[in-house]
TrEMBL record:
Keyword Nucleotide-binding on entry: yes
Record-stated family: Belongs to the cytidylate kinase family. Type 1 subfamily.
Keyword flag Lyase: no
Organism of this sequence: Lactobacillus apis
Binding of ATP, residues: G7, P8, A9, S10, A11, G12, K13, S14, T15
Protein's UniProt name: Cytidylate kinase
InterPro entries associated with the record: Cytidylate_kin (IPR003136), Cytidylate_kinase_dom (IPR011994), P-loop_NTPase (IPR027417)
Location within or outside the cell: Cytoplasm
GO cellular component, one term: cytosol
Cytidylate kinase domain: residues covered: 3-218
Length: 224
């Protein structure tokens, strides 16, 4: 079974997707982390974020892997754990440019589809229901105000021990800029699939969002 959860930055996709995957004993695939890993690899190899061929070559030398570790998920580039690196502000600011590169998307989408074809998955991202898994049994599109998403992003950084000089207002502006880039890129832009269920998480806590998605999954399972 395939569960696709899409939405803009910091709408709560990854948090709820992990919980749902654990509850259902499905595999969680964080596609955003995969594109962030591409961006980290570019940064660490001093490759311009617009250099498609250079980044592709570096990815081939540093295989991106998502590994389940102690109930969580770790991101690796080759044998290096880059789980914390993928959340750094510089990576957040540049991942839209890297993820918009056609050959990078092609490579990541191929890998994502391969994973989804081998197991029950909960996959989150920007274009899962529209491009990566267009035939997913359940499609969810999460939305929230930019202000509430900025608050979540700031809290996430603090919880991960990542220092940021950005103010809440600056983070909110950065999120709005990311939304624009993601929804206006030529390749697989951020948009709601026509058959996706939209859930506004602005006034909801994590448990409420999880329950709302589980209701949709149970409906789908009854119809299979």
């Amino acid at each position: 079974m395939q569960v696709a959860i899409d939405g803009p930055a910091s709408a709560g996709k990854s948090t709820v997707a992990k919980i749902i995957a654990q509850k259902l004993n499905f595999t969680y695939i964080d596609t955003g982390a995969m594109y962030r890993a591409c961006t980290v690899i570019a940064k660490e190899n001093n490759i311009d974020y617009g250099n498609e061929q250079g980044i592709l070559a570096a990815i081939d030398r540093n295989e991106i892997q998502l590994k389940a570790v102690d109930g969580g998920q770790k991101v690796y580039a080759g044998d290096k754990d880059i789980t914390r690196d993928v959340r750094l502000p510089e990576i957040s600011a540049n991942v839209s440019q890297v993820s918009a590169l056609p050959k990078i998307r092609e490579k990541m989408v191929s890998l994502q589809r391969k994973m989804a074809g081998e197991m029950n998955v909960v996959m989150d991202g920007r274009d899962i229901g529209t491009t990566v898994l267009p035939n997913a049994e359940v499609k969810i599109f999460l939305v929230a105000t930019a202000h509430s998403r900025a608050q979540r992003r700031m809290l996430d950084l603090k919880q991960q021990g990542i220092k940021s000089d950005q103010t809440l207002k600056e983070i909110e502006q950065s999120i709005q800029e990311r939304d624009y880039k993601d929804s206006h890129r030529q390749i697989s832009p951020l948009k709601k699939a026509t058959d996706a269920v939209e859930i506004d998480t602005t006034e909801m806590n994590i448990d409420q969002v999880v329950e709302a998605i589980l209701v949709q999954i149970k409906k789908s399972q009854k119809n299979i």
